[in-house]
Amino acid sequence: MQLSEFWVCFMQIYLYWYSFLLEASVCPEKCDCSFKNAIHCSGPHIKDLESLNLPCNMTKIHITDTNVAYVQDVFSGMGELQHLVLSSNNIALISPVAFKGLRRLKALKLLDNKLVELPPEVFSDTVHLQQLIIENNRLKSIQENLFDRLGSLEDLFLNKNQLRTLPSGVLKKLAKLKVLNLSRNSLAALPRNIFSALTKLEKLMLYFNRLSSIESGIFDSLRELLELFLHSNDIQSIAPDVFHHLHKLRSLTLSRNKLEILPPGLFLHLRDLSKLTLYGNPLKSLPEVLFGEMRNLGSLWLYHTNVLPENVFSGLKELRGLSLHTNNISSLPEGIFQSLQKLQNVSLFSSRLQVLPRSLFHNLKHLQKVYLNSTKLHLAELELSGNPLPSVSPELLKGLPSLTMLSLSSNALHSLHPQLFTAVGSLQDLRLRGNRIEALPHGIFHPLQHLQALDLSQNVLAELPEGLLAPLTALRILKLSDNMLARLPPRAFVTLIQLAELHLDGNQLVELPSGSFTGLAGLRQLQLQHNALGSLAPAIFAGLTNLTSLSLEGNRLAQLPAALLQGTPCLLHLSLARNRLQTLPRGLFANLSALQSLVLEHNALSHLPAAAFHGLAELTALQLGRNNLSVLPAGLLDELPRLTSLGLEHNRLSHLPTDFFNANEELVRVRLESNPWVCDCRLAYLLSWLQAFAEPLIHLQASCIGPTALTGRPLLEVTLPPQACGHHQGWDVARGEDTPGQCTYSDPEGTLHVSCNATSCQQLSLRLPPPPPGEAARLGPEYQGDWVLRSSCGTLRVSILVTVRDGEKDISPGVPAAP
C-alpha cells in the first residue's frame, strides 16, 4: 500500500466516516457490508484479495468460499482489525508479511484451505491474538518458533492436517493456552516436554493420530486439565503414573486403541472424573485395583473386553450408567455390581452371555433399565435385543409388575411360551421384531389388555389364529410387516377399536376377505404394499372414515372398483405405485377432497380420463412417472389448484396440451425426463412455461428427440415462443376462435360468451337457466355467476349478477378485465 493511501485510511478512521454504516458506493462488489465496521465477501469469482480494495477501518473481515490461492500484504494498515476469517478458500501460500501491523487482531481463522507450510515470521505482529484456527489444511510440519510471539493465545486448532512430528519447543511461549486441538493428524510420538509450559490448559485433543504409547511425565504440568481425548490411536502401552497429576480431569477417552492390559491403579488419582471410555480395546484382563474413589464418574463404557474381575468396579459408588455390551464375556462374577449402589442403566446386549447369576442385580435399588436381562425389580423398560437367545422363559419376567416396555427384538426366537406375558400385565410396548417366530400360541396376549404397540415384523408368521388379537383392545399400533402371511382371518381386527396404525406390508396376501377392516373406524395409517393382491372388493375400505394414509404399492392390481375409496374421505396420502393399472375408473378419487399426495408411478397407464382427478382440490404432489402415457387430455390438471409437484418422467409423451398448467399457479417441480419430446410448435407452451416457472435442476435431463436440428437439446435450452407458431397447422387453439387482436372466451357449458381485444371486451352473451317450476320471478337477486376463462390471449375473470326490479330483469355484469 502506498503512503498516500495509508493517510486516506487514517483520515477516514479519524473522522469516523464509517462510524455507523459502510456506504454502498464503498462496499466492494458482491460483498456484504450490512454490519458496522464488518465486511463479508464470498464467491468463486474472487480470485485475489487485492481486487477487492478492502476498506481500512474494518474490525471484522470474513472472506470465504473463494478461489484465492495466495494471501499478500492486503491487510497492512488495518490497525483496527480484530477478527479475520479466511476460511474455505484455496489458499496454499501466505506471505510472511500478510498480517503485518495487525496488533489488535484477536481471532484468525484459516481453516479449510490448502496450506502446506507457514512462514516462521507470519505471526510476528499479532501479539494480542487469542484464537488461531488452522484446521483442515495440508501442513506436514511447523517451525519451532512459529508461535513464539503469541503469548496471549488461548485457543489453538491444528487438527485435520498431516503433521507427523512436533518440535519440542513449539508450544513453549503459550502460557495462556486453554484449548489445544492436535487431532486427526499423523503424530506417532510426542516429545516428553511438549506440554510443559501449558500450565493453564483445560482441553487437549489428540484423538485420531498414530500414537503408540503414552510416556511417563508427559502430562505432569497440566494441573488444570479438564478434558483429555486419546481415543482412536494405536496406543499399546500407558505409563502407570501418567495420569497421577491430573487431579481436575473430568473426561478421559481411551477407546478404540490397542490396549491389551492396563497398569494397576491407572485411574486411582482421577477423583473428579465423570466420563471414561475404554471400549474398542482388545483387553485380555483388568487388574483388581483399577479405579479409585471416583466421586463424579457417572458413566463408563467398557466393551470389547474378555475378562471382568469381580472387584473391578469397587470405588465407583456414583456410577449411574455402565456399558459392557459387545464383549467376549461368556459369564459374569456374581458380585460384580455389588458396589454400584446408584447404578441406573446397564447395557449387556450383543454379548456371548448365556447365563446370568441369579443375584447379579440384587440390592441395586436405583436400577431402571437393563439391556439384556432383568431382576425382580420395578423396571419400566427391559431390552433383550441382539442376542442369540432361542427362547425366553416366563420366569425371566416374574416380579416385574411395573414393566411397560419389553424388547425381544433381533434374537433367534422360534416360538413363544403361552404363559410368557402372564406376569407383565402393565406392558404397553412389546417388540418382537426380527426373530424367527413361525406361529403364536392361542391366548398368549390375554394378559396384555393395556398393550398399545405390538411389533411382530420381520418374522416368518404364516397365519394369524382366529381371535389371537381379540384381547388387545387398547392397541394403537400393530406391525405385521415382512412375514409370510397369505391370508387374514375374517374380522381379524374387529376388537381393535383404538387401532391407529396397521402394517401388513411385505407379506404374501393374495386377497382381503370382506370385512377385513371392520371395527377400525379410528385407523389412520394402513400399509398393504408389497403383497400379491390381484383385486379388491369395492367396499373393502368402507368405514375407514379417519384413514389418512393408504399404501397399495407393489401389488398385482390391474383394475380398481370406482367405489373403492368412497369410505375414506380423510385420506391425505395414497400410493398405488408398482401395480398393473392400465386406466383409472371415473370418480375413483371423487370423495378424496383432502388428498395431498397421489402416487401412480410404475404402472401400465396408457390413458387417463379428462376428469380422472376430479375432486382433488388439495392435491399437492402427483406422481405419474414410468407409465405408458402418450397423450394427456386438456384440462386434466384444471381441478388441482394447489399442485406443486408433478412426475411425468419415463412415459411416451411427445407434446402437452396448450395451457396445460394454467390452473396450477403453485406448480414448480415437474419431472419430464425420458419422454420422446418433439420440440415443434405444439410444444411451445411447455417450453415457455419451463422458462418462466420450473426449477431448472429438475429438467436438465429432459431433451428433444426432434426435429432433427434440435435432437438431444435440453428442453430448457429451446426457446419457441407461442406467437411464432400462431398459424402452425398442429398448434393447439385455445377455447374460442381467436384472431389477431381479438379473442373469444366461453365456458364449457356454453352459458357465457364474450369477445375482447387488448383494451376492452364487447358482445357479452349470457344464457340464463330457467326458473324452478311454479316459481315466479321475485324482486332481488335471481342469478349470480363467476367465471375464470382462458384463451391464447390470456386469462379473463367475469362476474355477473342478475336482479329483478319492478318486474323487469336487470343484468348487471361485472366489468371483465382485458386479457
TrEMBL record:
InterPro entries: Cys-rich_flank_reg_C, Dev_Immune_Receptor, Leu-rich_rpt, Leu-rich_rpt_typical-subtyp, LRR_5, LRR_dom_sf, Toll-like_receptor
GO terms, molecular function: transmembrane signaling receptor activity
Keywords: Glycoprotein, Immunity, Inflammatory response, Innate immunity, Leucine-rich repeat, Receptor, Repeat, Signal
Cellular component GO terms held in the UniProt record: extracellular matrix; extracellular space; membrane
Residues of the LRRCT domain: 675-726
Superkingdom per UniProt: Eukaryota
Extent of the signal sequence: 1-24
A Gene Ontology BP annotation from the UniProt entry: inflammatory response
Alphabetical list of PROSITE patterns matching this protein: LRR
Family, as annotated: Belongs to the Toll-like receptor family.
Protein name: LRRCT domain-containing protein
